[in-house]
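Input record (one chain):
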Amino acid sequence: MSARFLALILILLAACGKKGTDASPPTDSDTISPPVGEPPSDEPDTAAAQAVVHEYYAAIAAGQYRRAYLLWGDSGRLSNQTFQQFRTGFRNTASVRVQVGEPGRIEGAAGSRYIEIPVEIEAFTDDGAMQRFSGTYTLRRVVVDGATESQRRWHLYDAEITPCPDGCANMDSAAAEVVRRFGSRLRMVSLLGPEAVVVTAIREHYAPLITAELLARWTANPAASVGREVSSPWPQRAAITAVEDQAERGQVVRADIVYVTSSDTTAVVYREPVTFRVTLGADRR
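The corresponding structure, as predicted from the sequence alone:
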């Protein structure tokens, strides 16, 4: 599919809170985007997911590959490797460490909970060469009645990890978080509905994250908007692949929009590459 190019904006306090700078108080006309993460009651759940990623890399660093393998769902099979293949992949790794970023929102679907956690990874090979990677892990846990204790724990479900030889900056930036949040809302705007319904959905779900200009364009012509185009497959999330600084123009975030089916939300049907331009800390007009 052809890549789309969208212009998004993170408004008011969301960006400033990351940087520790001052922000003007909101007015009645401002729409404040919801805080990153879940309400306080879900904070332990988020911390537990982060702990799994830390444990995963601690096990790899200690050479405990079976322990690391079993942190993947379905007894390691969701790594898409046999245990032998998994262990062999680290045969030249001398050391590894991970920096875990701010988790995304916990999302629910089909009796499961999902969360994306950005990471930056630094590894050294046996010959002393340094390798750097960045991306996100998606973790899943089951919440249906009758699930076992093991199924109710967070497990690694999917990974979007790519090399970054020039550095791994900004994968956990406010811009990347905006794109993740936007990607999680795509399924909430069904382009199949009546025009008035689509316009309402665009305002409700996209307005806190996009520029006033883009909002006006999409509400005037909903067919030019993005969202759920068919009942199935549908866009589930945005998997960040790269973040690039562009000085005064903000940041460019590249991502794959991940599509799944209504009958099986665990199987990725296809990925659509999308490029976003995100301007941080700008006032909404």
